[in-house]
Every structure is written in structure tokens, then in C-alpha cells.
Amino acid sequence: MTNAALTELALAGADSRPIIEAMLVEHLAELGEAPDAAELARYWADEDRYPFLIIQDGAIAGCALIRRRVDDARFEMAVLHVRPEARRQGIGRWAARTLLWKFPGEWNVSTLPKRDDARAFWRSTLSTLPRLADVSERIDGDQSLFRFVLPPGRGAVRPARASDARAIGRIHVHAWQAAYRGLLPDSFLAALSIDQREEYWRDVIIRRRSTLLVADDDTGRDINGWIAIGPASDPDAPIGSGEVLALYVDPVIWANGVGGALWRSGRDYLCKLGYQRAQLWALADNRRARRFYQRAGFLFDGSQRTVVRGPSEVREIRYIVDLTQAPPSDPDNQLHPHGAEPGDYSGT
């Protein structure tokens, strides 16, 4: 079995389309079929389609294509492919389980025709997911259609460990690349280094330079997001002020409530540490993140600043929240946060 810590899922940008298309040719070769180029292009045009690369030890090991049906909102695993040289290591099962956990809801999964091994794979994989409901398998010609419901999970929020640094760095980079596309230069975003972020955050955790909390996924083998908190760094911050130094969620599961869970735990920690007020800095043009913070109870206090992010100067605005007041009842299912990045945590 593969070590899941060395396996990653990454949302595939349009520049990865030729790589995925080549893998689809490989995937369908046994059936004498070819990929539908127009259908494949929709994975980078439609909001209800999600293309992924499966990466093992830094190398592309496969791909997955997930779509959400318009008529009944069911998810479908359109393609799950592991390259021949990467098979028999457990990578396919790890990717299947991880993708299912990250997209809770109603699912359809169909096998390719004449593939008894694919039927056996999905029967075995689904048997390892204890929360499945309404599971059924229907034979449709020479393929099987699996239907099931996977309820949302309850991954725990806990203090970060040094061994989490790789996943923290990965989420940091992927969240920047997804959230700041169009706001920061593409060349800068493409050059972001997971290795550098891993090293940076491991040092933060070991030296306890701030408090990091992570949201476990349901497999217990990966994390879905993280929050860093500490004392407010601004000279004008009142005594008793804390700060949200960073808050990121894996782009794969934006809008699944992980951001709200992280903020509630971070808020509790800030209160336990004795802070009565908290602040954060958010990119002024990051409207989605700003809406999340506003729904979580933060208010713009009128302060702005210009900071350097790579080759660009960008404007940030400051939000504050009164920790002595009861929080809003349900920021949980609102829009996903993309993060707040003070200069000390730019990682550049």
C-alpha cells in the first residue's frame, strides 16, 4: 500500500489539459475509444466539473474527473485513472476514498464495459467507507452502476504537528493559486514552492511562533485546512488584541463548512488565551474571503495598507471582531475563505 502522506490531489489548471488528455487516451485504449475533446474542455469551463491530477512523490501518477449532474445534483466519477507504472501501490483506492470524502452528497459511479476488475475495485473501496447510505449496484449491460449517499463528515480540528507541515504547505500553495488567479501574476503563482512553505510552517510549529490548528479529513490521514493565530502585530492594536494570521482551506472542498469550523476553533483558542479582540488583514480585491469574514462577525475598521506580494503591490484592509460578543449563529455554510495573509506570513 502507498504512503498517503506522499500522495496528493491537485486541481488541474488548463495548462494540465494535454497531460490529462494523454492519460485519457491511455485509459480508453483498451476499448478502442478516444476522449471527447469538447467534453474534456468543459472541465475548465463549467463550475460543476472538477479535474484533478494524482501526484505521487512529486510525479503525476494519474488523474480524476468529477462532475455534478444538473438534473439531480448527483456527483459522478467520470474518470479515475492511475498510470500503469503507478498501479498496485494503493494509489487508486487512496484517491477514490479521498475524493469521495471531499465531495459529500449523492453519488453515481459506473464502471467501464467489460471491466470486472473495475467492479471489484469499487465494491472493495466502497466497503471501506462506513458512513455510506442507500448503497445499490445495478447491472447495466456489461457495466455496473453504483449509487450511494455519503453524508458530510465531522473531521476534528486539532493543534498542528510538525508532521502536518507538508500538507499545510500544499494547501497554502494550492489555495493561493486558486484564490488569487487574476489578482496576482500567473508566473508568480506558478512558481510558488510547496517545499518552501513546508519548511517555513514546520519551523513555525516547532518553535511555537504562533498557534496552528488543522482540520483533519475523515480518513485521518490528511488535513483539509488550517488556521494560524497569535498576538496582534500592529503597533496601534489595543492591549488584549489577537490576530488571525492565516486561514486556508483545500480548494478541493471550498464551501463545505471547513472554514467555519476552523474559525470557530480559532476563536475559542483566542478567547482561552485571554484576547478580547481579534483582527486580520484581507486582500481588498478578494471579495469572497471578505464576505466570509463579514458573515463570521468581522467588521472593516477603516485601516488599509499596501504590501508586496511577489512582483506586485496589493492593497489590504483590516477587519476586527469583538470576542466578548456572541458570534453569528451560522457562518459555517457560507462562502469559503481564501485566507488572510499578513506580511510576516507571505512565505515569499
The chain-level mean pLDDT equals: 84
CATH class of the largest domain: Alpha Beta
Distance between the termini: 36 Å
Number of domains: 2
Strand arrangement in the largest pleated sheet:
1-2-3-4-5-7-6
Low-confidence segments, ≥5 residues, pLDDT <50?
1-5, 331-348
Class derived from helix and strand content: alpha+beta
CATH topology descriptor of the largest domain = Aminopeptidase
Shape: elongated
Largest sheet: 7 strands, mixed
Q: Count helical runs.
A: 9
CATH architecture annotation of the largest domain: 3-Layer(aba) Sandwich
Q: Please indicate the percent range of residues in DSSP E strands (runs of 2 or more).
A: 25-35%
Please trace the helix and strand order, writing H or E for each element: EHHEEEHEHEEEHHHEEEHEHEE
Work out the radius of gyration: 21 Å
Notable characteristics:
348 residues, alpha+beta, Aminopeptidase, 2 domains, seven-stranded mixed beta sheet, elongated, disordered N terminus
Report on this structure.
It is built from 9 helices and 14 strands. The chain is an alpha+beta fold and 348 residues long. The chain has a 7-stranded mixed sheet with strand order 1-2-3-4-5-7-6, sandwiched between helices. A 7-stranded mixed sheet has the order 8-9-10-11-12-14-13. It is elongated, with a radius of gyration of 21 Å. It folds into 2 domains: 4-150, Aminopeptidase; 157-345, Aminopeptidase (3-Layer(aba) Sandwich). The longest helix is centred in the middle third of the chain and has 15 residues, at 165-179.
